[in-house]
Design brief:
With 409 residues, this protein is an alpha/beta fold. 39% of the residues lie in helices and 17% in strands. The chain has helices at residues 24-35, 71-87, 100-108, 116-125, 137-146, 162-165, 169-177, 192-195, 207-216, 227-237, 256-265, 279-282, 291-300, 314-321, 353-362, 371-390, and strands at 2-9, 42-47, 58-65, 90-95, 112-114, 130-134, 151-153, 183-187, 200-202, 221-224, 241-243, 270-273, 287-288, 305-309, 326-329. The strands form 4 sheets. It has a 4-stranded parallel sheet with strand order 5-4-6-7, with helices on both faces. It has a 4-stranded parallel sheet with strand order 9-8-10-11. It has a 4-stranded parallel sheet with strand order 13-12-14-15, with helices on one face.
Length: 409
């Protein structure tokens, strides 16, 4: 199995939010794990980033890349997975960011490909006794929180998220205790232990609607963990929000200056940006939205060209649904870089066909959550699902800072 070290820097050294992006304890554990790795097949991906003053701030993350299957071997593994999904009464649920082969496999076997909100809803409502979740760990945990009677498996339990890593449950508890007057709203990209401390969980598909409603009710909000998404929601809703200082290592890398140059080269292109991106990038967007909103924009939009600023795994589904549209990856680096757009989550890349087969053959990668934590976390997740089910109009109409003609971000 190939290993990779991904290095990704903070966008703006002028940001002074006090909370750490990763706790000392978790950083120590992470570095210990790295020290034990077999580096004989190590690939290093280094994306240094400097501000105008030349300062650089680098955070590290590691990920394993599964072996690539080809030809007869790949066909045999896919056939075996299809057989076992039936025999084991299992359903495959995949995120838009995972490998295209996995997305196709999920759709061809009666599974599902979606954003994290719809993944959670599908897993809860599906009759299968076993769920295979191809994505990152918090997605598997969300499925288990909602469906404790089901067995939930993941191709690789080490597939995590920089937002999750950067919001340690103990550190968050300390932060939350300092602000007992605030309603706690956490993004889906957090651990079950953090969700257990929250009043609400949100995804990028429903965050604007829920925060707007809380503002109407006069609530002050403690938000975690993505500072960029939090800032965007705060700007759009006018809510009183205290933000945790976290960021996605993929979206944090998009460059406004390079995006401006790309827009100049493609003046008729529609620019689609995920709200986890830095403000300077979001400000250049025609559409700011979740993965589902971005796909909808491509499918329903009148433009021929689309510049897409999110994980490039989404391009697979976009091409399937809109084969006549031209999709252009937004830049994460300048012209001199060896990789001008490297927008792919290293942990999403850990999902492989062999890992799915291992789940089905060996019951590997099972998600377990302590029952007291699960019960506490269930409240904020169900509150979100109930809200989105009872207020579908808020997710479809352009109001209160929603993206025009697209719906909730």
């Amino acid at each position: 199995m190939t290993l990779g070290i991904f290095r990704c820097a903070a966008v703006d050294s002028k940001e002074t939010l006090s909370e750490p992006q990763i706790s000392p304890a978790k950083l120590k554990l992470l570095m210990h794990s790295i020290s034990k790795l077999d580096i004989s097949h190590l690939i290093t991906f280094d994306y240094p980033q400097q501000n105008a003053a030349g300062a650089t701030c680098t955070a590290q993350a590691w990920a394993k890349t599964p072996p690539q299957l080809h030809g007869a071997e790949k066909a045999a593994v896919i056939a075996r997975i299809k057989q076992l999904l039936i025999e084991k009464n299992a359903a495959l649920v995949a995120h838009y960011y995972v490998d295209g082969d996995i997305q196709d496999l999920a759709l061809s076997t009666g599974g599902f490909v979606a954003d994290s909100l719809e993944m959670a809803r599908f897993g809860k409502n599906h009759s299968a006794k076993n769920l295979i979740v191809a994505g990152v760990r918090f997605m598997g945990e969300s499925a288990k929180i909602l469906s404790p009677e089901k067995r939930v498996f993941m191709p690789d339990l080490d597939a995590t998220c920089s937002l999750d890593l950067g919001c340690d449950a103990a550190d968050f508890a300390t932060f939350r205790a300092l602000h007992p007057d605030r309603t706690v709203v956490v993004y889906a990209n957090t651990s079950a232990a953090v969700k257990a401390q929250a009043d609400w969980m949100v995804t990028s598909s429903c965050a604007l609607a829920i925060v707007h409603q809380l503002k109407v009710e006069g609530k002050k909000i403690l938000w975690a963990p993505d500072r960029h998404l939090g800032r965007y929601i705060q700007e759009q809703t006018g809510a009183d929000m205290l933000l945790w200082n976290g960021a996605c290592i993929v979206h944090d890398e998009f460059k406004a200056v390079e995006l401006e140059m790309l827009i100049a080269a493609h003046p008729n292109a529609m620019v689609l940006v995920h709200p986890e991106s830095p403000q300077a990038v979001v400000d250049l967007a025609d559409v700011v939205g979740s993965t589902s909103a971005m796909i909808k924009a491509v499918v329903e939009g009148s433009a021929i060209e689309y510049i897409v600023a999110t994980d490039n795994g989404i391009l697979h589904r976009m091409r399937q649904l809109a084969p006549n549209k031209v999709l252009i990856e937004a830049p994460t680096a300048g012209n001199s870089a060896t990789c001008k757009s490297c927008a792919h989550c290293p942990w999403m890349a850990m999902n492989g066909l062999q890992g799915i087969l291992n789940c089905l053959e060996n019951a590997s990668g099972e998600i377990f959550i302590e029952e007291d934590v699960r019960v506490k976390a269930l409240g904020c997740v169900e509150r979100m699902l109930d809200f989105t089910q009872n207020h579908p109009d808020l997710l479809a109409k352009a109001q209160h800072g929603f993206v025009k003609n697209i719906g909730a971000a």
